[in-house]
Amino acid sequence: MTSAKLAETANALVADGKGILAADESSPTIKKRFDGIKIASTEENRRDYRDMLFSTPKANRYISGAILYDETIRQKAADGKTLVAKLKSAGIIPGIKVDMGAKPLAGHPDETVTEGLDGLRDRLKEYAKLGARFTKWRGVYRISDAAPSPACVIANAHALARYAALAQEAGLVPIVEPEVLMDGDHTIDVCEEVTEEVLRSVYAELANQNVWLEGTLLKPNMVISGKDCPEQAGVAEVAERTVRCLKRTVPAVVPGIVFLSGGQNDELATEHLDAMNKLGNLPWKLSFSYGRALQAAPLKAWSGKAKNLAAGQAAFLERAKANSEAATGRYA
Ligand code: 5MM
Q: Which of 58, 114, 290, 330 is most buried by a 10 A CB count?
């Protein structure tokens, strides 16, 4: 696959008013989500839930791509069609999470490094055959008095860049996801400082590994107050600081930045994205790659019951439409 193909996929994922559905919850995470609606995390329930989202009529007006988990990319829906085939026929680009999760970083209590580089070249080839056109890898950074340590920042940036280079070699667009968690009582100042340091290190490593930025997307956290910080920054401040931080660190040739929601409530995640786009004068597209902020409402409406399928899809479409409007700064 040529560079042109990588750029074409990256640009299609951030086409005007479109964003990504992150549905790549690993088994422990989807179990947590299903616990919330009191249904068992069986293979069949996971399949039906994801089929419900992917088959939502007209979703492709707002959703460009969906990130899958290893189980999902191999799964067939109850009607016998693969979930990948259903996404493709709905006009949604299939993607795949290729990291093997954040694991304890030796010598650094409470910090993690994301693993999964061993054997990645072969896994990427297989995912491409299964129909994936883009990939995702998430590095996780916790804020505390001692964290993130330089070791955590360097190790995760290195892994993200090694992954991105391998993904491009396989003809798959890498979504580079460095997530500074909102857990903690830190101020928005600290979040901005840490996010800037993390993004600087990520782009330095991407350059070291010869990653072609035009064929990548960035999936960062927003610059936001810690969840338990007594002073919560408002929407305008989050938007201004996030855009300032990104302008300082993310090269203009990157086609798009697709935010994670990170545990923000879904309405706020939409308002923040909208406020950023309303600022205008941005070198890249700013859109969404939300998991919880797109799925919380449909998960609740569906609640594991086939009779609620239409209600689940309506709730999903509503969040997708709102975020699509926010991705062009037209959310009212
Ligand atoms: C959907 O959740 C993704 C997978 O997490 P686990 O591997 O821990 O199960 C996660 O990477 C997600 O893609 C991003 O964090 C964005 O999701 P949110 O919910 O933060 O928007």
A: 290
Question: What angle (nearest 5°) sits at the alpha carbon of residue 295, between those of residues 289 and 297?
Answer: 135
CA-angle at 19, arms to 14 and 24, nearest 5°: 120
- Active-site residues, by number, are 177, 219
Which regions of the chain are under pLDDT 70? Answer: 1
Domain boundaries, the chain: 3-326
Beta strands in the chain (DSSP E): 19-22, 63-68, 93-97, 102-104, 112-114, 134-141, 173-180, 217-218, 256-259, 285-290
Q: Please, are residues 114 and 86 in contact by the beta-carbon 8 Å criterion?
A: no
Global confidence as pTM: 0.98
Interface predicted TM-score (ipTM): 0.91
Q: Which homologous superfamily does the CATH classification assign to the domain defined by 3-326?
A: Aldolase class I (3.20.20.70)
Residues with CB under 6 A from ligand 1: 22, 24-26, 29, 101, 138, 179, 260-262, 290-293
